[in-house]
Structure formats: C-alpha cells, structure tokens
Design brief:
- The protein starts with 16 loop residues before the first helix and ends with a helix.
- It is elongated, with a radius of gyration of 19 Å.
- With about 110 residues, the protein is mainly α.
- It has helices spanning about 15-20, 25-55, 65-80, 85-95, 105-110.
- It contains 5 helices and no strands.
- It has a domain at about 20-95.
- The longest helix is centred in the middle third of the chain and has 28 residues, at about 25-55.
Length: about 110
C-alpha cells in the first residue's frame, strides 16, 4: 500500500458506522480491524520518515547544515500533510482493500 497516493480525506467526516460495519456485522470488530491496520500504517510511515531523515544525520557542524536543515523541514512538512493513519485505514476499509479473518468464527464453522 502506497500511503502517499491515497485518496483518503485529510480531515474527519461524519460517517454511518452501521453501514461501514456491514461486511463483518459487528461495529466493534470493524473498529478492531481498522485500528490494527492504522497501527501497521503508522509504523510503516514512521520507519519511512526515519530512514529519510537519517540521510541528513551529520555529527559535525558545518555551513552546509543550513541547507540540509531546509531539506529536512520539507520532508517533515510532507509527512505532516499526509492524512492520519486512521483515516487511511478507514478509506482502505471502505474500498475493500483490507484482508481480515477471525479464527474464532472459522473454528465455529467446523
């Protein structure tokens, strides 16, 4: 999932929770699935940001640090403008892009 090219809204909206929960039939299970996906996205985004900022890490003071600092600020601004992981996960849920399974329900079927 490329979270940089998502069409998720960057602000909160009012949504019909019961309609969103129709695929699983349980609001709490839907929230659990979306929250796990949001946590996955959050970790992925944090690792991506850390690797990009690690490129600018220098342990000596020099004049070029001012220009590197500007690039660091631009990268940080880009990540701040991205939608929050919970909103991206909710959009993935609405688009049907999240794979989920409940082993307890599968066990009941056998």
């Amino acid at each position: 999932m490329d979270y940089r090219r998502t069409n998720a809204a960057s602000n909160t909206e009012t949504r019909d929770v019961m309609k969103l929960a129709e695929p699983v039939g349980n609001v709490y299970e839907m929230v659990r699935i979306i929250s796990k996906r949001a946590n996955q996205l959050s970790v992925e985004m944090k690792q991506d940001l850390d690797t990009k900022l690690q490129e600018f890490a220098s342990y000596t003071d020099n004049l070029e640090e001012v220009f590197e600092n500007h690039e660091q600020i631009e990268i940080s601004r880009f990540y701040e403008k991205l939608p929050k992981p919970a909103l991206i996960a909710l959009q993935d849920w609405k688009d049907g892009e999240i794979y989920y399974r409940n082993p307890a329900k599968e066990k009941e079927q056998f």
